[in-house]
Each structure stands twice: as C-alpha cells, then as structure tokens.
C-alpha cells in the first residue's frame, strides 16, 4: 500500500506545472499577429517563434526524463519551473524578435524538464489502483489548455493592460510557476533517485540531433517547396536514430550509463503503444487548419475563432475525467476513443463540405472527436507505462512525450500541407473537409495496431 500521504496534493501541482507546456503552445499562436506588428517581424521569424519551442521540447524531453531518474523528479521539475519562469519573463520583455526566439528556445528547455516528471511520478507515487485516476487527471490538462489557450489568448489580447499587449501571454505564466514552485516544495518528495550512474552525453547528443534533423525538415519543408535536400536531411535524421539505437545497445552490453534502455523499444507492446500515441496526435492538424479557415475564409475574429474550438476542447477536457469513472477493459476504451475520433472527424468533414460554416452539427461532431481524443489519451498513457518498471519510468514517460510531440509535428505537416495545397485547387471548404477527413482516416492505422496490442493487455 502506498504510504506517501501527500501524493494527491503533489499531483495537483505537478499537473498545474505540466499545464504550462500545452497552454503556451495554444496561447502564443493567438498572439502572433500582435507580435508581428510589434516587431515588424517576417513570417519566417513568426514561424520560428512557434517552431523553436516545439523543436526544443521534443528534442530534449527524453533527456528531461532521464535527469529525473538520476537526480530526483522533484529537483528536475523545480528546475524546469524556474527555467520556464525566467524564460517567460525574458519573452515578455524581449527588445527584439531575435531575443524572443532565443527565450522561446529556453521555454522549450523548461517544458522538456516538466512534462516527463509527471507521468514518471504517477508511476512511482501511486498504486496500480490509483494510477488510472491520476493519469486521467493529467490527461485532462491538454484539453483544458486547448480551450483556455484560445480563449485566454483572445481575452488578454483584447484587453488593455497599460503598455502591455502580446506580452501578457507570457506574463500569465509567472504567477502559475510561482505557485507551483511553492506547492511542490511542501508536497513532493524527491522520488526515485538512481545511484552510481552517470549521464550518457554522446547518446543525448545523438538523439537531439536526430530529432532535430527529422522535425526541422517537416516544419520548413513547405517553405522551401520540398527541395531534394529536405529529404536528404530527413534520411540523415533516420540514420542517426539507427546509430543512436546501436550505440545504446553497445553501452547496455558494456554496463555503462545509457539514456534510453533499448530493450524498452524492443518490447513489442510498449512499441505498439508509442505508435498508437503517434498516430492519434495527428489531431494537431485541426488546430492548424481550423483557425486559418475561420479567419481567412469566414473572416472571423480571434475571439470568435477561440470560441469555435470550445466544443472540441471541452470534450477533450471531459474525456479523461469520464474515463477514470468507467470500469471497462483498456482494449474496449482504446477502440472507443479511436472510433470516436474516426467518426467525429469524418462527420465534421461532411458537415463543413455541405454547409461551409460552423453549425450545431459541426459543434456536435467536433465534440465527438474531442471526446475521442480525451478518451484515448489517458488509456494509452496508462497502457504504455504499465509495460515498464519504476526504474525506467522516466525514460518511458520521455518516450511517450516524444511520441506525442513528433506525432503532432508530423500530423500537423501532413494535414496542413494537404489543406494549403488543396485550397487553390478545390477551394477552402473542400480543402478543409479533406484535411480533417484525413485526420479521421489515420485513426484506422491506430485501430489496426490496437488489435495487435490486444494480446498483451
């Protein structure tokens, strides 16, 4: 029986700190027009404001999980909070767009230290009976961030705060991080610290460069019209991933410190879980296409755009909370979540193709898709960490975070590229319908993989 009495209060502050990572993604997107005007920034610079955060986050998140294993999750989580706090202040008071991009990089570093500690701490601090509820609470913050990021961003930008405008989307992080720093200090123990182990610096660099070489071409490929060298960089990234895996196998055989235990990736059920996580995160494409469609085709304001995403975000928030109350087999919940995503996006595509504008029908279908997202996320997180030991919890949670981040980037690129290329061929409504229909159809891959996972659950 778990005897750590403060685990639930600690979880509240862990979740609140982790909430900063997705919130910052959504809220900063809302401020891009104001940032462009304030700095007279180019579209490429604005793209870097968004991309550098996601790139750093994705590339370093496994390192963040490993640091938690080595030095204790309380210490690394607190370090992440301080990094996020200082970099948020740096963003708000940046004198030039270049400085804003630099501080956004450090925000990504902070986020990479925060996210993996939560799932790993749940694995360590909570009993197997308590973990479903804890994971569901953690998963719900992503849906809440989707709602609040859009609405809060629109609200902060529409209000007058003296000489501040876009700066407020960064300053709002300050009180949240301060509350978390104080709360974690009094409620969390420095759970699970490995001894007599070092850091795999070479492995860390190999993984970071491999992920950067994979993600950067996906983000900037459209800008450079998918020149041949873009694919060359992608292939180099894949080659580096293979080198990284072989290097970790070599270190494991030699009994030396490793970044990721390669046997985790060789464990078929865990690998299948990561692939399902990767594919359902193609839902990120919705947040690229939908705001653009509403503002450029329907000429809606930023606040109207924020409100339009509420049905999806509310359902995304409620899904994990509902899952924690339902006592069904994990496989049943996986099929339910993926099925809702599949049906929700396909029906949404049909509704927009027919009527073009958001309506009660599209609110219902997007709510269905959001509920599917909120259902599948906690089930897959819980399923993935079930296949690992407490000693490998940090590495496993880092890999889960990478699956989510890379899935979001790849999904966003594929869906976004399809959408923007089809606009000039078949028009806005048909292009948007095709894009979100693709998100739904991709879930068929996840359903196929979940059938193979079934024998291990």
UniProtKB/TrEMBL annotation:
<feature type="transmembrane region" description="Helical">
    <location>
        <begin position="305"/>
        <end position="323"/>
    </location>
</feature>
<protein>
    <submittedName>
        <fullName>MFS transporter</fullName>
    </submittedName>
</protein>
<feature type="transmembrane region" description="Helical">
    <location>
        <begin position="101"/>
        <end position="122"/>
    </location>
</feature>
<feature type="domain" description="Major facilitator superfamily (MFS) profile">
    <location>
        <begin position="10"/>
        <end position="452"/>
    </location>
</feature>
<feature type="transmembrane region" description="Helical">
    <location>
        <begin position="270"/>
        <end position="293"/>
    </location>
</feature>
<dbReference type="Pfam" id="PF07690">
    <property type="entry name" value="MFS_1"/>
</dbReference>
<feature type="transmembrane region" description="Helical">
    <location>
        <begin position="399"/>
        <end position="420"/>
    </location>
</feature>
<feature type="transmembrane region" description="Helical">
    <location>
        <begin position="199"/>
        <end position="220"/>
    </location>
</feature>
<feature type="transmembrane region" description="Helical">
    <location>
        <begin position="134"/>
        <end position="156"/>
    </location>
</feature>
<feature type="transmembrane region" description="Helical">
    <location>
        <begin position="76"/>
        <end position="95"/>
    </location>
</feature>
<feature type="transmembrane region" description="Helical">
    <location>
        <begin position="360"/>
        <end position="379"/>
    </location>
</feature>
<dbReference type="InterPro" id="IPR020846">
    <property type="entry name" value="MFS_dom"/>
</dbReference>
<feature type="transmembrane region" description="Helical">
    <location>
        <begin position="426"/>
        <end position="447"/>
    </location>
</feature>
<feature type="transmembrane region" description="Helical">
    <location>
        <begin position="12"/>
        <end position="32"/>
    </location>
</feature>
<feature type="transmembrane region" description="Helical">
    <location>
        <begin position="168"/>
        <end position="187"/>
    </location>
</feature>
<keyword id="KW-0812">Transmembrane</keyword>
<dbReference type="GO" id="GO:0016020">
    <property type="term" value="C:membrane"/>
</dbReference>
<keyword id="KW-1133">Transmembrane helix</keyword>
<dbReference type="GO" id="GO:0022857">
    <property type="term" value="F:transmembrane transporter activity"/>
</dbReference>
<dbReference type="InterPro" id="IPR036259">
    <property type="entry name" value="MFS_trans_sf"/>
</dbReference>
<feature type="transmembrane region" description="Helical">
    <location>
        <begin position="226"/>
        <end position="249"/>
    </location>
</feature>
<dbReference type="InterPro" id="IPR011701">
    <property type="entry name" value="MFS"/>
</dbReference>
<feature type="transmembrane region" description="Helical">
    <location>
        <begin position="335"/>
        <end position="354"/>
    </location>
</feature>
<keyword id="KW-0472">Membrane</keyword>
<feature type="transmembrane region" description="Helical">
    <location>
        <begin position="44"/>
        <end position="64"/>
    </location>
</feature>
């Amino acid at each position: 029986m778990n005897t750590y009495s403060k685990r639930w209060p600690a979880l509240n502050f862990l979740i609140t700190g982790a909430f900063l990572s997705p919130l910052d993604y959504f809220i900063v997107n809302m401020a891009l027009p104001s940032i462009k005007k304030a700095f007279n920034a180019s579209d490429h610079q604005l793209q870097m404001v968004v991309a550098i955060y996601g790139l750093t986050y994705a590339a370093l998140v496994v390192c963040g999980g490993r640091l938690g294993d080595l030095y204790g999750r309380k210490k690394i989580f607190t370090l992440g909070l301080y990094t996020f706090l200082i970099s948020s202040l740096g963003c708000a008071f940046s004198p030039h767009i270049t400085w804003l991009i630099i501080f956004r990089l450090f925000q990504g570093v902070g986020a990479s230290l925060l996210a993996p500690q939560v799932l790993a701490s749940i694995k360590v601090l909570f009993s197997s009976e308590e973990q479903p509820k804890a994971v569901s609470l953690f998963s719900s913050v992503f849906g809440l961030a989707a709602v609040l990021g859009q609405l809060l961003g629109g609200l902060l930008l529409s209000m007058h705060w003296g000489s501040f405008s876009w700066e407020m989307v960064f300053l709002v992080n300050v009180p949240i991080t301060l509350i978390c720093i104080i709360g974690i200090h009094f409620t969390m123990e420095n759970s699970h610290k490995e001894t007599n182990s070092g850091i795999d610096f070479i492995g860390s660099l190999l993984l970071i460069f491999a992920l950067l070489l994979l993600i950067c071409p996906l983000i900037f490929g459209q800008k450079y019209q998918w020149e041949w060298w873009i694919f060359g960089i992608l292939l180099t990234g894949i080659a580096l991933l293979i080198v990284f895996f072989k290097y970790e196998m070599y270190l494991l055989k030699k009994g030396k410190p490793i970044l990721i235990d390669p046997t985790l990736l060789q464990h078929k059920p865990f690998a299948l879980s990561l692939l399902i996580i990767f594919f359902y995160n193609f839902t990120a494409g919705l947040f690229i296409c939908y705001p653009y469609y509403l503002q450029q085709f329907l000429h809606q304001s930023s606040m109207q755009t924020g409100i339009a995403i509420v049905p999806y975000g509310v359902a995304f928030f409620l899904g994990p909370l509902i899952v924690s109350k339902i006592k069904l087999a994990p496989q049943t919940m996986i099929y339910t979540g993926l099925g809702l995503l599949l049906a929700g996006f396909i029906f949404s595509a049909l509704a927009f193709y027919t009527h073009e504008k958001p309506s009660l029908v599209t609110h219902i279908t997007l709510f269905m898709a959001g509920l599917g997202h909120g259902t599948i996320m906690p089930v897959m997180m819980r399923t993935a960490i079930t296949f690992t030991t407490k000693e490998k919890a940090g590495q496993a949670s880092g890999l889960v975070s990478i699956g989510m981040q890379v899935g979001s980037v790849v999904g966003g690129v594929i869906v976004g590229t399809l959408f923007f290329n089809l606009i000039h061929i078949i028009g806005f409504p048909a292009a948007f319908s095709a894009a979100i229909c693709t998100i739904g159809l991709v879930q068929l891959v996840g359903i196929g993989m979940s059938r193979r996972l079934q024998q291990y659950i």
